[in-house]
């Protein structure tokens, strides 16, 4: 069972992650969006389809989102499985964020990849 502080932290992280996803295709300040070579290889139109799917993603369940942070999703496009993942780094991108619920000390990085690149 999570404490009230942990619940609050997870809810804040979820809201920040949702805000990043919903801002796509433009990353909001303090956020980066990365696409692997396999994603870039499908061209701008294919990437746009993936970005729209990530922006609109709402299939979070306890199985794929056990901490309630809305930081991972999977989808298919033209028979290929893709993943997206949001990670929270410190502002220098050297280490994990000291507090992922605090956008002042965190840079969020959303990575889009083919499942076979994982």
Can you lay out the helices and strands and say which pair or pack?
Blueprint: H1 4-22, E1 31-35, H2 37-40, H3 43-56, E2 72-77, E3 80-89, E4 107-114
Parallel strand pairs: 1-4
Antiparallel strand pairs: 2-3, 3-4
Concise summary:
With 118 residues, the chain is of the alpha+beta class. It is 31% helix and 25% strand.
How would you describe what is shown here?
The protein is globular and about 40 Å long. The mean pLDDT is 93. Helix content is 31%, strand content 25%. The protein is an alpha+beta fold and 118 residues long. The longest helix is centred in the first third of the chain and has 19 residues, at 4-22. It has three helices and four strands; from the N terminus they run H-E-H-H-E-E-E. Strands 1-4-3-2 form a four-stranded mixed sheet. The chain has one domain (4-117). It has helices at residues 4-22, 37-40, 43-56, and strands at residues 31-35, 72-77, 80-89, 107-114.
């Amino acid at each position: 069972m999570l404490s009230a502080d942990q619940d609050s932290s997870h809810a804040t992280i979820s809201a920040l992650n949702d805000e990043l996803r919903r801002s796509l295709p433009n990353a909001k300040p303090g956020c980066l969006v990365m696409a692997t070579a396999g994603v870039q290889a499908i061209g701008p139109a294919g990437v746009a389809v993936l970005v729209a799917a990530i922006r609109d993603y709402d299939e979070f369940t306890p199985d794929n989102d056990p901490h309630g942070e809305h930081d991972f999703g999977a989808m298919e496009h033209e028979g290929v499985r893709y993943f997206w993942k949001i990670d929270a780094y410190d502002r220098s991108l050297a280490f994990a964020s000291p507090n992922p619920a605090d956008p002042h000390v965190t840079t969020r990085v959303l990575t889009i990849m083919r499942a076979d690149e994982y």
